[in-house]
Amino acid sequence: MKKFRIAIISDSHLIKNSTFLGIDTYSSFKAVVDNLVKNINKYELVLFLGDMVQDQKNESFDFLNEQLCRIKIKKLLIRGNHDIKKILPIKDFVEYNPPFSFENWIFIPIESYKKGAIYGEISSDKIDKIKKILNKKPQSFGILYLHHNLFETFSPWLDVHITRNFIQIRKELSKITNLKLIISGHIHQYTKNIIGDKVFLSTPSTSAQFKYSSEEFTLDTINPGYLDLQLNEDGTHKVQVLRILGNFGKPEKNPKTY
Ligand SMILES: [Fe+2]
What we know:
CATH superfamily: Metallo-dependent phosphatases
Low-confidence stretches: none
Radius of gyration: 17 Å
Number of helices: 5
Structural class: alpha/beta
Bound molecules: fe (ii) ion
CATH architecture: 4-Layer Sandwich
Mean pLDDT: 97
CATH topology: Purple Acid Phosphatase, chain A, domain 2
Helix content: 10-25%
Order of helices and strands: EHEHEEEHEHHEEEEEEE
CATH class: Alpha Beta
């Protein structure tokens, strides 16, 4: 059976000469890219699910571009709530990624970014477009990628920033026959949720990790990481969470906000 692998990274929150919630985001991001570059022959594509630069400094965009330039395969990037510049100075970024087909899989973005908001929002016309694209190719399998999560984390401080209309969106997506996977970032943790034959994954951050199901804002001490996703010809997949070894700082004990 034919199969291929992709890598999914998210939430680098780059800050120059400072830390993000105790983490040196430049060194953790570089370590993730080092690992990807070392293993690049395994992958066909890299998805980057947003919240790329936290401090909005030119130096951080330069650093990001330098690092992305080292990844010499196709990259698809999407805007997160921290990617607030009207025109993002990121070489690999385009505002609307067209659907991308590889083997019998189609990668389609969902823009969940809402200007001025931390939470996400998805209009129903975007879902209609996705339906149309996938209906036209019944022999192919769909994989959607977006920044904001569609499932709660049961951490109230984080769930206020979920995609506003997540229940309705999930319902609509679950009706699309050949849709298989929906992958998001934003919540800085790996999660897996299932509706019927659709699998919803979230990606760990390349910087600070957030704790699932915690009353107060809590950081996880687990290392930064990314997803390694194998997509098979028959529509099945295999996912692995890869954690990066190294010391990138100490996650703050009583973080205030992010
Ligand atoms: Fe985010």
